[in-house]
Amino acid sequence: MYRPAAFAEDDPVRLGALIKAHPLACLVAHGSNGLVAAHVPLVAETGAEGRIVHLVGHLARANPFWAEAGEGAEVLAVFTGPDAYVSPSMYPSKAEHGRVVPTWNYQRIEARGLLHLITEASQVRPYFEAPTDVMEAERAPAWSVDDAPEAYVRQLSLGVVGLRIAVTVIEGVFKLSQNKSGADYDGVQSGLAAEDAAAARTLSTLMTDAKGSA
Questions:
Q1: What is the pLDDT of residue 214?
Q2: 180, 188 contact by CB (below 8 A)
Q3: In principle, which of 44, 105, 112, 190 could form an S-S bond with 169, CB 3.0–4.6 Å?
Q4: pTM surpassing 0.70?
Q5: Per-residue confidence band for 136, with pLDDT thresholds at 50, 70 and 90
Q6: How do residues 199-211 score in pLDDT, each as one tens digit?
Q7: What pLDDT was estimated at residue 162?
Q8: CB 22 within 8 A of CB 11
């Protein structure tokens, strides 16, 4: 992952927050017939000091990814946070010297790890229950797998494969114009705040929060 020092993010709390807010990962492996990918929500399990040690989720048994990748495969999970185009017109320095170019602000995480597959129907329930509990935690009323008829849940379990990824490396890039001067930083923050796209406004808020905590 290309990580200029100004944008590198390794704080496990901030990485975990992005995964929680944007859990749908692009999961990539080198399968028996070349590269394979799946798009799957994953939740983070943490260990000492909040470090992310596992990513947990599930796939439909009919999805060819798990069989192609295989038990013990090295996989790459890419989590996509908000992103937005940054126009040179947002920089006050454009009027001063014109030496500005377009760029893109964004938040991304890449996690590498080893894949463990849970294929026994009697053992897969935690792997669809955990993501559900995370997604429902702030809803009222919160839906639980226990709300569904037990016979129905057992039937669903036959069509699911659990995924447990032991994370070996996790890296983030939170590119929020940290390399810009104060005036240009403020210009990007206000420029993104004025955009129609929700992601741009989210990035503007993140920039405001980052400046306030500096």
A1: 60
A2: yes
A3: 112
A4: yes
A5: very high
A6: 999 999 999 998 8
A7: 97
A8: no
